[in-house]
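Priority: medium. Attachment 1 of 2:
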């Protein structure tokens, strides 16, 4: 049935002058490849540095149009470890503004040394890391030529983005989910130095994110507590400047080359800046105590400067605390019915 549907779509696409996405099932090489658009077309505009940090869920098309402009409306490469080429189709056909979109779906670490994969990444005007399981990204890419290619892409002043698992690995330190699960806030706060809080560092080098720990699906999955625990572990492990940055579902924080970010969302949501006071005295097997954790939220009306970690026109803010592994005094949204500006 699925083949029949695809065949019908292909006939209709050709009748309308549109070439359907092409898939190359190259699992013997450790990846599958999809493309849509003209991969040989010249890039229409100039590329610029930029970060698109998406919290998972639905895409806000305004954020994608911002990203595609940073990519010179050229060639986008999506990296995933599950799924198919559907996201590339949506970008190319529904959002518009890309010369082509190529999708690489990894199923083995060996693909990270494949010459074709590396050539595709080198030619990318913009790179986007899809959602899924960030543990696979760590296992497939860390310490490989793909890791180097991603860092080189950013160093050349080209944009990169990620959603859900793809955002989780963009920070200077990130939750790798290497324990095989997705830890919740209560468990993380009970033992932030324990084996279930698997933080990964020395992976990707993103501008302005060297001391930032990212998290996603933030409000929907009640992740403020676990982000505080993540930051606590990173600070206790030697980075006193570490802060947390959580992004709500259906939202995207777009950061330009100067480190200034604007939040886009098609629904109610925020980006959350988490700044603890000092480093905790954290020991394995012990619950977290953190007397003062500043929490500031960014909505559609404000801006964040990642050079100074300051938010102008915050949506709301407050100071939370953690006592014996319990999160207290969580700031409350004073306008839960607020909707983002169109």
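Attachment 2 of 2:
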């Amino acid at each position: 049935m699925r083949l029949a549907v695809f065949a019908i779509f292909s006939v209709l696409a050709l009748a309308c002058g549109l070439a359907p996405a092409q898939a190359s099932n190259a699992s013997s090489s450790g990846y599958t490849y999809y493309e849509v658009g003209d991969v040989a077309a010249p890039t229409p505009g100039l590329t610029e540095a930029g970060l698109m940090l998406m919290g998972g869920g639905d895409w806000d098309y305004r954020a994608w149009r911002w990203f595609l402009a940073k990519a010179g409306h050229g060639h986008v490469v999506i990296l995933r470890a599950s799924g198919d080429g559907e996201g590339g189709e949506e970008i190319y056909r529904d959002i518009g503004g890309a010369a082509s979109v190529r999708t690489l779906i990894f199923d083995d670490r060996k693909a990270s040394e494949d010459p074709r994969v590396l050539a595709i990444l080198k030619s990318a005007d913009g790179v986007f890391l899809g959602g899924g399981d960030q543990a696979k990204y760590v296992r497939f890419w860390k310490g490989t030529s793909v890791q180097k290619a991603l860092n080189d892409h950013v160093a050349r002043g080209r944009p990169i983005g990620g959603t859900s698992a793809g955002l989780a690995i963009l920070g200077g330190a990130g939750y790798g989910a290497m324990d095989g699960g997705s830890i919740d806030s209560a468990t993380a706060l009970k033992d932030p130095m324990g084996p279930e809080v698997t933080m990964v560092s020395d992976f990707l080098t993103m501008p302005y994110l060297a001391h930032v720990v990212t998290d996603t699906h933030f409000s929907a999955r009640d992740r403020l507590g676990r982000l505080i625990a993540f930051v606590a572990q990173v600070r206790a492990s030697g980075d006193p400047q570490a802060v947390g940055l959580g992004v709500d579902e259906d939202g995207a924080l777009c950061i330009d080359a100067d480190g200034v970010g604007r939040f886009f969302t098609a629904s109610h949501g925020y980006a959350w800046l988490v700044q603890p006071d000092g480093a905790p005295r954290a020991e394995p097997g012990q619950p977290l105590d953190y007397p003062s954790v500043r929490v500031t939220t960014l909505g559609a009306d404000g801006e964040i400067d990642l050079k100074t970690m300051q938010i102008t026109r915050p949506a709301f803010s407050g100071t939370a605390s953690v006592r014996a592994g319990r999160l207290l005094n969580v700031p409350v949204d004073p306008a839960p019915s607020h909707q983002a500006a169109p």
